[in-house]
């Protein structure tokens, strides 16, 4: 039986150290971490690796339920997949596990709360953007990646994985940029 930790933050400038320290303190021998949105499971390769790795009796630990995801259905499907593999899911804050029946109820409610919180965040963000636009102060988001550099690296013959490693992003981001560049051409 292994204790496997999973840590996630949404953006590249956020820090994983607190989650990693907590998971190590809980005795996780294996910890997978990634910096990607929890809005859906798309592009979350480390989470997919963890799920594939789970064996009967293993325990998947996360510091908070929203680290698994912000969509109730995704979280419940993920928990179901873990259980199909004979593994348990444990959330450290608040401490809830799928080892008991009550844990399922609590995790369902926490999943709904995480989804509501995401909706509230998006609503506040939308309102803030509208206020900024009305005041003439909104300029949109700033580009986080140099798209021309990515296209140039591809033209030099580098593959998506090598490009992603070179510029510090996911392969999915590279694919999106390369696809968008073909549409613009």
UniProtKB/TrEMBL annotation:
UniProt-listed Pfam families: HTH_23 (PF13384), Resolvase (PF00239)
PROSITE patterns found in the cross-reference section: RECOMBINASES_1, RECOMBINASES_2, RECOMBINASES_3
Keywords annotated in UniProt: DNA integration, DNA recombination, DNA-binding
GO biological process: DNA integration
Domain Resolvase/invertase-type recombinase catalytic, chain residue ranges per copy: 2-136
Active site annotation, chain numbering: 10
PANTHER family on file: DNA-INVERTASE FROM LAMBDOID PROPHAGE, RESOLVASE HOMOLOG YNEB
Recorded family membership: Belongs to the site-specific recombinase resolvase family.
This protein's name: Recombinase family protein
Organism: Aureimonas flava
């Amino acid at each position: 039986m292994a204790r496997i930790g999973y840590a996630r933050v949404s953006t590249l400038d956020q820090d994983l150290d607190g989650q990693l320290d907590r998971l190590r303190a809980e005795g996780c021998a294996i910890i997978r971490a990634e910096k990607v949105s929890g809005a859906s499971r798309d592009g979350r390769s480390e989470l997919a690796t963890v799920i594939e790795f789970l064996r009967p009796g293993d325990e998947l630990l996360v510091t908070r339920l929203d680290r698994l995801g912000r969509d109730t259905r995704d979280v419940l499907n993920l928990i179901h997949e873990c259980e199909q593999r004979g593994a348990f899911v444990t959330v450290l804050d608040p401490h809830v596990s799928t080892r008991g029946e009550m844990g399922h109820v609590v995790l369902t409610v926490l999943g709904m709360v995480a989804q509501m919180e995401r909706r509230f965040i998006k609503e506040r963000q939308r309102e803030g953007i509208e206020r900024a636009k009305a005041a003439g102060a909104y300029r949109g988001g700033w580009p986080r990646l140099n798209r021309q550099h990515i296209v140039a690296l591809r033209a030099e013959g580098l593959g998506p994985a090598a490009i992603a490693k070179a510029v510090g992003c996911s392969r999915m981001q590279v694919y999106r940029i390369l696809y968008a560049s073909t549409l613009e051409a």
